[in-house]
Amino acid sequence: MLITGGSRGIGAAIARRFAKEGYRIVIHYLQGHEQANETARECIALGAEVLTVSADLGSKDQLTRMKEKLDTLGLKPDIVVNNAGISHYGMLIDVAEEQWDHVMNVNLKGMFLCTQLFMPHMISQKYGRFINVSSVWGMTGAACEVLYSTTKGGINAFTKALAKELAPSGVTVNAVAPGVVETDMMSTFDQAEKEALAQEIPVGRFGSTEEIASLVYFLALPESSYITGQIISPNGGWLT
Q1: Which pLDDT band holds residue 183 (cuts at 50, 70, 90)?
Q2: Which of 8, 50, 99, 162 has minimal CB crowding within 10 Å?
Q3: Where are the transmembrane segments (predicted)?
């Protein structure tokens, strides 16, 4: 299996969850070399075989070379978790064109390129799983996060459409759209802001990366074959 952006946060938790089940795991990262290696060591300690690879998701050439490297090692993932993403906070009127292009390249173009590169193998064997990590903001939108919300909404539409396209081939496509999860993305909030936000959530707390990883794991199982084209949002009842 391949996890993009697998060096930290939700991606690292997904890697550890699959490692517990003995999967062969490819952890993709861009710049977090040490973090990727640390996550790999954790997964190896859990009994998994792990490879780390670096590539710019916005570059088709780099992703093609990454796939060629996996091919030479006999690694043809039939589970791809498109997890890599970056956030952006700010008024739309202040968003520069370069910022727009950068976030779009990572969050949307990267998912498109990875999916396109790895889907032929899944189609040929009549089995595969694409699991795309979205956000609750892709479902509802968020003020001061128009750019981020747009990319996540695009992921949701991509997921629904591709699921119909690949269903006859035995390949499922689903998205997980978490609510507030305790990750590095929350580092800009102080304790008072976090407490106020948690009070808005019916269960009274943020989600954990492990909870998101467990949902991703379930969607990857053969038993989940009748679930496709779904946007599943673990958000503690925040959005119903």
Answers
A1: confident
A2: 99
A3: none
